[in-house]
């Protein structure tokens, strides 16, 4: 009787061992990161205009993109076409803007500017080299043709994305 | 490089930062080179060549990190452009680290300071000779001599102490040697042998052969009659003893 029980227990344990799950783990570290080095500031040269142009008292936004692995990513910058917060506006706002390559950490990145693709208020760059690239984003808002903007605080968002190719 | 880097010994270069703006036509060819001569050998200790062929104008920022190497190996540095381009707003900065104990004698808190000082005094024959008052290590020499004297005195005191301790140690050794023979001594046969040995040598003759002269020994203590009072304190103690005994017994006599 004892022998039978022992055999049964052995068979059960053998069956359990065959069902063991062996996990494989891994972690993915980001190879593309985006940093705001200089936040943009709107200057107010005319009653109806807000602009980031330094000549008009504004500050252009500077965004750095670090690429650890070359030729795997593209970056996309969307300059604003609306305010994320502002006083109530009763008229249309005309938006303009641009994104350009600023400083580079590798001379070859200088070619990004000529190869960029622009559509609507979006600019795409093909990140073919590893290293850091500084992008400069400009924005300008003109209210109701030439209508004075209501007093208050205005905020607009630049959207910067890193997309795997 | 002495004009760029601090003059302190023990400096090590571990990185170079550069920033420059290149102005050129996009279809022109140009190469920007940043170099440092090798001061202790031929060639360059650092070289960077940025290829700007067929590229538009821009500002470049870079930081190269490398294994730290002594600043003494770093010779003249320069940045130049070859080709149809111009450089402006150029910054080349060296990132270095400094070991304050590179010369151990520079700071008494350096780990090898004492051995370095001893070597200095030995090399300059100053162990037993007083240096000039303007010697940079005169104060250290005085301290060294004081320490040396203190050590000598300590050693002498130690030696004297050891000499004094020696007889006591001998006594202890003798006692210990006797103690180890206790078993032998307690043996009755051994004792008999010892007694017979002592008798045969006449050691006990002095005791057995002693003659005590006869006579009268007068009492020298005289007790005068007087009244002896009871010792109440003793009685009180006895009463307390009895009480204590009763208390103790009460634990068992149930």
Outline of the structure:
The complex is a heterodimer of chains A (165) and B (254). Chain A is mostly beta strands and 165 residues long.
Structure description:
Chain A is mainly beta and 165 residues long. Chain A is 12% helix and 41% strand. Chain A has helices at 2-17, 112-115, and strands spanning 32-38, 43-46, 49-51, 61-67, 73-78, 93-104, 117-119, 122-127, 131-143, 159-164. In chain A, strand 7 and strand 8 form a beta hairpin. The N and C termini of chain A lie far apart (68 Å). With 254 residues, chain B is of the alpha+beta class. In chain B, 37% of the residues lie in helices and 27% in strands. Chain B contains six helices and six strands. Chain B has helices at 113-123, 138-179, 182-186, 188-200, 205-208, 232-250, and strands spanning 11-24, 30-38, 44-51, 58-70, 74-83, 85-98. In chain B, the strands form two sheets. In chain B, strands 4-1-6 form a three-stranded antiparallel sheet, with no helix packed on it. Chain B has a three-stranded antiparallel sheet with strand order 3-2-5, with no helix packed on it. In chain B, strand 2 and strand 3 form a beta hairpin. Chain A binds chain B through residues 101-111, 113-114, 132, 134, and chain B through 19, 22, 26, 32, 50-52, 55-62.
